Structures are given as structure tokens and as C-alpha cells.
């Protein structure tokens, strides 16, 4: 008698993910073969995303919210808080934006996403060779800009890391702006963490 392995394969998990019915008010992502579901974000989170989007010039950049990203080698389809793509690059239709055309991804840390944003997604985005990954952290009132992706798979990382505090100007060379963070609010009554 032959044993049958009925664990989901990479192909099956992607199909399950793509056909998943997500309850209203929840966000779902596929991160290295793991389906992650999260409740909707804090208002401070959304205000920060809006402030960033307003500062990135629309004439040159597409600033896409809730856009799923295709990172097939990673068995990942994350949904960053903001995706920045040069105007004219990438598809005009469809659910997935290929990682190869992305200039910068932005994640605003939530109270429950610290490890995912600082560790898991950092590695996934570096493995996909996304040129810049900006982590906005209302827990620690800081911005972390990661550039120069290197490595493969779970060993991938960014060579350069620049940390600025909320209230300071944050240079974003990949998109040619200096980000004003003076409007960014920190979360209240949240335990500090140890990242980056």
C-alpha cells in the first residue's frame, strides 16, 4: 500500500488563496505559502498611507493601494499598503502587479503585523528584487527605508537601511522626493518592539 501525501502543494495553495471568500472588513495575503488574514487597519494607519500618497507626484508615479503583487517564485501574493510604479509601467488591468515593474513598496506597521513587516515581507520583497521597501512604524514613530536588495529566498535582504523619526524629513531617493512625516501619528497604548 502506498502512502498518500494530501498536504497542499504550491499550486493548490495559490488556487485556494485566489478562491478564498474573505469576510468584509478583512485583508488577506499569501506569504511564502501561508495565508494570513488581518482585520481592517487603524485610522492612524490610513491617514499615514494617504499622507504618503499625496506627496508622491501623480504625474510620474502610479500610487496604488490594496494592490496584490505577483511574486510567483516566492509563492507569495502580498498586498502592501502602497505600491509605487512608474507611470506607464505595468498592466492597466488585472488583479496582480508584477514585482519586476515596482519601484517602491510601503507597509505601515499595524499592532499585529510587526514581525511580518520587518522580517517576512522584508525578505520576500528583497528576494523579488523590489528596489525600495519603506516601513512606516507608528508603534516606534519611525520610518525605515530599505534599498539595494540582495540574496535569494528566505536569505534575501536589503544592504542599505536608513531610519528616521516621525517629524523628520525622510529622503526617498527611489521616487525623488523628501517625505514630510510631521503629520504621522503614533499608536496609543502599544508595547514597543525590538525591530529593525
TrEMBL record:
Molecular function (Gene Ontology), one example: endonuclease activity
Keywords: Endonuclease, Hydrolase, Nuclease
Any coiled-coil regions, as ranges: none
Domain Putative restriction endonuclease: 17-174
Pfam families: Uma2
InterPro entries from the UniProt entry: Nuclease_put_TT1808, Restrct_endonuc-II-like, Uma2
CDD domains, per the entry: DUF820-like
Name under which the protein is recorded: Uma2 family endonuclease
Native source species: Streptomyces cylindrosporus
The organism's taxonomic lineage, starting at the top: Bacteria, Bacillati, Actinomycetota, Actinomycetes, Kitasatosporales
Amino acid at each position: 500500500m502506498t502512502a498518500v501525501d494530501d498536504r497542499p502543494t504550491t499550486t493548490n495553495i495559490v488556487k485556494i488563496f485566489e478562491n478564498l471568500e474573505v469576510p468584509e472588513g478583512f485583508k488577506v495575503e499569501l506569504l511564502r505559502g501561508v495565508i494570513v488574514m488581518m482585520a481592517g487597519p487603524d485610522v492612524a494607519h490610513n491617514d499615514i498611507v494617504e499622507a504618503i500618497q499625496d506627496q508622491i507626484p501623480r504625474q510620474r508615479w502610479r500610487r496604488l493601494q490594496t494592490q496584490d503583487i505577483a511574486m510567483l517564485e516566492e509563492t507569495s501574493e502580498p498586498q502592501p499598503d502602497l505600491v509605487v510604479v512608474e507611470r506607464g509601467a505595468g498592466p492597466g488591468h488585472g488583479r496582480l502587479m508584477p514585482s519586476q515593474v515596482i519601484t517602491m513598496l510601503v507597509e505601515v506597521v499595524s499592532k499585529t503585523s510587526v514581525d511580518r513587516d520587518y522580517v517576512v515581507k522584508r525578505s520576500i520583497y528583497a528576494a523579488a528584487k523590489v528596489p525600495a521597501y519603506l516601513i512606516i512604524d507608528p508603534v516606534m514613530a519611525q520610518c525605515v527605508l530599505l534599498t539595494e536588495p540582495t540574496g535569494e529566498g528566505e536569505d534575501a535582504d536589503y544592504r542599505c537601511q536608513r531610519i528616521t523619526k516621525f517629524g523628520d524629513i525622510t529622503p526617498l531617493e527611489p521616487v525623488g522626493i523628501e517625505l514630510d512625516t510631521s503629520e504621522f501619528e503614533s499608536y496609543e497604548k502599544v508595547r514597543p518592539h525590538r525591530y529593525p
